Amino acid sequence: RQQAAQGTVEGRVVRVKVEAFIMSGAGGAEPARETNWFEDWSARTPYVTRHIILSIVMLWIVSLLSDFGAYLVDCPFETLMMFHLWRLFTAPFAPSGLLATLFTVLSFSQMGPRIEAMVGSTKMMVLIAKLGLAVQVIFIFTVTLIAYNPIARQPAAMGMCSAGFWTILLALITIECQQNPDQPRRLFMLPCPIQARWYPWALLALFSLIGGLRIDNVLAVCTGYLYVWGYLKRFQPDDDTMERWEESGWLSNVSNTIGYIRIGSAGSYGDLEAS
Hints:
By secondary structure, the chain is mainly alpha-helical. It has eleven helices and two strands; from the N terminus they run ααααααααββααα. It has a two-stranded antiparallel sheet. The chain is globular, with a radius of gyration of 26 Å.
């Protein structure tokens, strides 16, 4: 019995030493590091989508503490008359209310990774920038035309503003839906599916019922059609140019970071290619 007890004690000592050896990382074995939810989310979310979502959330938090968001919205009076041209680029990131921000983040969290995996991170940046700028330029032109048209002038229209990432989301939804126009899609909790060709307009009608008709949202859908019909293709850099950006250009410092999808690793661009 004494020998058996002694053997049991020695076995426990050996087991403890082995566990301590493994936990210490000796012999080249390192213990697995536990990750938090943010690290897990960052690892599975592509680079551009991740940074856009973070920018939207951070700017919304900043807007709670200051009126910084007022300098981001695209109001034709400030943009043209006061020469605040940066508003053409910052308007999609102008913060909205809590529910609007939450809805934007949830929607883009589903759409963004899918499109970025298809086209690559560089093309995703170009696409977002091109759609965002196109919507704001068309918005400026439309509002100015409403304000100063020779038939029925409405100068107060120059006070209209465009803000929020939905101007880009609606354009992306329109582009995506027109690739398979006959495919049925469900609009939230509605029991009947809607053909994809009509889905952007149904979504726009729903938003108009909830928050009123907004010109910038209408123009966002129209901009999506302009892309599908090929009118924005002339502003698209070719693949070779964007690959040079990734290899030795201004994107070379970020193209090797986690989640960045290079053009060569992306899926086919045909699903979102302008016809």
